Amino acid sequence: MLSERRLEVLRAIVQDYVGTEEPVGSKALTERHNLGVSPATVRNDMAALEDEGFIAQPHTSAGRIPTEKGYRLFVDRLAGVKPMTAPERRAIQNFLDGAVDLDDVVGRTVRLLAQLTRQVAVVQYPSLTRSTVRHVELLSLAPARVMLVLITDTGRVEQRVIDCPAPFGETSLADLRARLNSRVAGRRFADVPQLVQDLPDAFEVEDRGTVATVLSTLLETLVEEAEERLMIGGTANLTRFGHDFPLTIRPVLEALEEQVVLLKLLGEAGDSSMTVRIGHENKYEGLNSTSVVSVGYGSGGEAVAKLGVVGPTRMDYPGTMGAVRAVARYVGQILAES
Amino acid sequence: MLSERRLEVLRAIVQDYVGTEEPVGSKALTERHNLGVSPATVRNDMAALEDEGFIAQPHTSAGRIPTEKGYRLFVDRLAGVKPMTAPERRAIQNFLDGAVDLDDVVGRTVRLLAQLTRQVAVVQYPSLTRSTVRHVELLSLAPARVMLVLITDTGRVEQRVIDCPAPFGETSLADLRARLNSRVAGRRFADVPQLVQDLPDAFEVEDRGTVATVLSTLLETLVEEAEERLMIGGTANLTRFGHDFPLTIRPVLEALEEQVVLLKLLGEAGDSSMTVRIGHENKYEGLNSTSVVSVGYGSGGEAVAKLGVVGPTRMDYPGTMGAVRAVARYVGQILAES
DNA sequence: CCCTGGCACTCTTCGCGTGCGAGTGCCAGA
DNA sequence: TCTGGCACTCGCACGCGAAGAGTGCCAGGG
């Protein structure tokens, strides 16, 4: 078991290393933090911490740097979430408030997050599966051609053009539109299939084929578009990554281009609560030298999507977590308002 | 005036340097290309080329590398466009043929181009200034809250939530919807402002404020929508850039995130014909160490947008130009089909 | 039992001098 | 106008030594 002071030493090491990016030695530690003990004592503690695998030496005559296990302990037990200052919060709110539509909200969020954390930001579009239907619109383009427009409560809009098996009158269309909306408006996507199951029965025989086509297109759209989208930004911050550039940065850029990888990454990260994945805790090996801080955000109490940042394992965890949490909150508010 | 052989020497220098990334000396040149003359002669030619500013020496005892002026001459007079091989062309076509919608076409194009050229690819979405309005939908969310949904003939959908100055009844809403659509459906974006100008006059006094608000939001949306979008990809290829990483790569990443910069860049590049901008020919200084190869593409004879790649000035110009041209052609075909 | 000061030891880093080699410029001759 | 020869310049890799940072260990004191 590690004594209180040893944990304190670990915290000090992490903080210093994150600040300076250089291995930290016992003497420097006692000077920068008043631990109340001598360098020699700190050395003993460091030896113990190294035995436990929380810190390591790059080479024999260098100071210590935290291991992934060390960061893990730091995040779990030693560090809180650093709250944003009032001006920062105001700035966040102001910046997000100007958004005109969902794309804009996501775009602003990603820029904001990248700027606040000085790292790469990733923002997932509100998921369709967890959204509710605000409205379904049907437009007649031609006698046997209908456009289906699906609008979610988070502001996402999807549309499809449907070729009907038979001409479909305006009145039937209006009827279908009304019935459809009365059933699904305000309901969750997941529930839609059951809700519309028996809908064709309410129509004349000659219209049933068209109604069925429209419904199946609707369901199809729900499935297809449930496929998540996301936006990334702040890749220029990758240049602050480290010294051994090409090797570190390349796989990260590759991972960032593989949206599938990122979506899986965000998906794996628990529920809506804040998740920190450090180094090899990330399954995708291109991201083994990075940490990912993510959190769910949503318009109501429940998360509709995730956002987060990707940065070096050596990152300012409390600050990053604070920024991520704050941004998620305000984005949730913005979405709830619209 | 430069003799034929000297141009030949320049071409050889560019080719070798692009291949090896190392300054090329007179001896190596005579060995790798059979110029039919001795190294000493080549040295004289090199001295002349250097006097003219086409090549330079990094340091006294090193070989020569092309200057931007040298690349310019190479591109203008010494190099053709290397055509794609038949298998390559087939691969391009196959890859693009699978696209299901516009987003997919652009996404595939950007990936393809990045892969073919091993550089950063930029693809602009087809310009919307020539688009027409397919339908305008108005939905009542609350007594004084309306959602505007705009659908274009290219399949793009934009929506805005509008807070009305006064409550707006369902019948008024239906009236506005009908009048609006009868005027603007099928018309070009550019014509919409005049078409709706006198629309408020047709309504009761108490509704005019709301109608005006809706219209101004519509016009605003049209303007925003017409603003071009683009997609980039292959940023991981930036790692192949050179040795002095952080300094070179950072401004490029920053430029790539500034879509405005890129749009301007593509916009400046002449009409639809292939344009090559080398180093400082790019106005934006973050891209001063890069070359941009771009070309217009379109479904018919006319270009609707541009695409291209951003790479180091030391790039394989003939190959890159060949790939860019080929991809642009096939994308044009795909768009024409759909 | 834990903390402390001291001390010897280990490595990395940096500066410096040297030799090597690639590449050049110039010149005289064909 | 081209060619071979030759002296010259420099960047770079290498080896060496000094400096410095940091450690581990040990004996002594609270």
UniProtKB/TrEMBL annotation, chains A, B:
Official protein name in the record: Heat-inducible transcription repressor HrcA
Alphabetical list of Pfam families matching this protein: HrcA (PF01628)
PANTHER family linked: HEAT-INDUCIBLE TRANSCRIPTION REPRESSOR HRCA
Family: Belongs to the HrcA family.
UniProt keyword terms in alphabetical order: Repressor, Stress response, Transcription, Transcription regulation
Residue ranges of every copy of the Heat-inducible transcription repressor HrcA C-terminal domain listed in the record: 103-321
UniProt key word Zinc: no
GO BP of this protein: negative regulation of DNA-templated transcription
Any coiled-coil regions, as ranges: none
InterPro entries: GAF-like_dom_sf, HrcA, HrcA_C, WH-like_DNA-bd_sf, WH_DNA-bd_sf, WHTH_transcript_rep_HrcA_IDD
Any GO molecular function: DNA binding
Organism, scientific name: Streptomyces lacrimifluminis
Entry-linked SUPFAM superfamilies: GAF domain-like, Winged helix' DNA-binding domain
Record function comment: Negative regulator of class I heat shock genes (grpE-dnaK-dnaJ and groELS operons). Prevents heat-shock induction of these operons.
